[in-house]
Amino acid sequence: MQAVSKAEKILKELRFDFASFSMEAFLRHVGESRGRKIVCLPWDREMPFDVFGAWVVDAEHSIVYIFYRSSLHPIHQTHVVLHELAHYLCGHPTLHVTEELLNRIAAQQASLPFSDLPQLRSNSKAQMEAEAEALADLIQKRILRHDHVERLAQDAVPQEKLADFLKTMSAK
Amino acid sequence: MSSLILAPLCLAFWVFTLLKLREVLREYAQERETTALNICAIAFFGSLDLTFMIPEVVAFVDTHIFPNLSVLVAYGSFLVGIYFLTVVSLTATDAPVGGRVIRLLRVLLGLVLSALLLIYLLFISKMPPLQFFAPQNLPDMIFKLIVWFFGITLSMTLAGTLLIHLPAKEFAVPRLRVLAIIFAAASAAANLLVSCIITFANYFWPSFSAPWLFTLTTLFVICGVLAFLVALLGGKIYAEFVMFSSRLDYWRAFQDVQYLVERMLRLFPPVTPPPARPSFWRFQRDPEFHLYHAMIIIMDGSAMLEGFLAELGGDLPQPEDWEIRESDNLVGEAQEVQRTLQPVPLPMDFYEVVEAYRRVSLALAQEAKYGMSG
């Protein structure tokens, strides 16, 4: 319950209009509100089997990197990105990596330091996971509500003339 | 038909007509939007038709203006109204032969209206009050049959055009609206057909009596008018209806995927306990979210299964090699879930993903080699 109220508070403070949601716009908005650039990167190399994403902070620049497993289904990828972003929004601790390490990772000379990330299944990890999941859920809930209402209320079909006819015919 | 039914319907049509007219004058006056003007014409002639069907109006007009004038106005308005609706539909759907059909229908409408006016002036206006289904003489029967046949032609053209161009399922609201128009047109055609049969039968066999046929025409008229009124409803009302029906579908899908969700949760208990399964009413508040959450649990589990079994190494055993396993044999259970999941290609669309996992869940539940806890 605590996790949910914390998530609601964070989302309220963000003041994002979910009616016009796109992942790109949302990441930009979060970045601008927190003074850091958010960069999402697909990860196609090895990851522990129960890890789908990770986030690290650039130690030298105002950038947050979110890595997600590239083999996941796009719906799953979106959830993973939102979950990792939620960790950042909740102010959870993570690794601060140097530009040099990031360059080596990009050049495939090094891997993400998964073993150094906050330990899975520790008590504090469980609390952080609960908070991140609650916030990611809340974001998804808002997206789905707006998307559903918008999609249905559009009353639109690809055929422009037919759409115009049906729209004109309906009472306002 | 009773004025108790006709009067409210007529009032509803007039209200819509005036609202539409105001809208057209405000929004489309400068653009001279043909569709909007045609829809105004449909509403106007539809209202006029219904007005001249109310028994009290008929009696007043026929007594104080011209004998049987109400029949000419009602039939003429009906044909002109349905003509405009057919023209708008043919234009809106970009039907390949639409232009030619519209020209043909325009010529036919001109001929039909001229013929009706001529018969009215020469015969009907000099006759005692017409009875709806009992032609008094040949001109009376011809007058009615012209209306019925041309009406059937227009209704069938309208219904056929829209049926061919029925929006796909994913466009639920416009699809429903088009279906309502098709239903209205089909009801009109059915009503006219039955009217034709009754008129013919009454002319050749004056003793003909089939009260159920009269009831049928009344039923078709009510269905047609109601369907047309439904087609005029605002998009938000449709959206509410679609949401309600899709919520019930989502609930069924949610129930169906629960078996797979629980299997995944048992195989890979999450770090944080998952939220309790929502009740029907709680589910209704955010149906897509609950369904989405279930999908994420399955996707989490599915992705972990792959890695988990790969870490164990070796090929998956063939089904015939499997032994009867105990319920706590998680490796065997993981292999079974993986075997059912593996051949299922995941589509990109969320609702298709739900359907794919639904099928997997039902298939697994059918096998049900492993009991579920709780």
Largest interface: A-B, 45 and 56 residues
**Uncertain regions spanning at least 5 consecutive residues of chain A:** none
Strand content of chain B: under 5%
Task: Write out the strand line-up for the largest beta sheet of chain A, numbering strands in chain order.
Answer: 1-3-2-4
- Helical content of chain B stands at over 70%
Provide a count of the helices of chain A. 6
**Mean of residue pLDDT of chain B?**
84
Order of SSEs of chain A: HHEEEHEHHH
Arithmetic mean pLDDT of chain A: 82
Q: Indicate the CATH architecture of the largest domain in chain B.
A: Up-down Bundle
Count of discrete alpha- or pi-helical segments spanning 4 or more residues of chain B: 13
Global Rg of chain B: 31 Å
Kindly report how far apart the N and C termini of chain A lie: 42 Å
CATH fold topology of the largest domain in chain B:
Rhopdopsin 7-helix transmembrane proteins
Number of domains of chain A: 1
Q: What's the number of extended β-strand segments of chain B?
A: 0
- For the record, the count of structural domains of chain B works out to 2
Radius of gyration of chain A: 19 Å
CATH superfamily of the largest domain in chain B: Rhodopsin 7-helix transmembrane proteins
Structure write-up:
The complex is a heterodimer of chains A (172) and B (374). By secondary structure, chain A is of the alpha/beta class. Helix content of chain A is 52%, strand content 13%. Chain A has a four-stranded mixed β-sheet. In chain B, helix 4 (69-92) packs parallel to helix 6. The two termini of chain B are 61 Å apart. The relative contact order of chain B is 0.06. The chains are: A alpha/beta (172), B mainly alpha (374). The interface between A and B is large, with 45 and 56 residues.
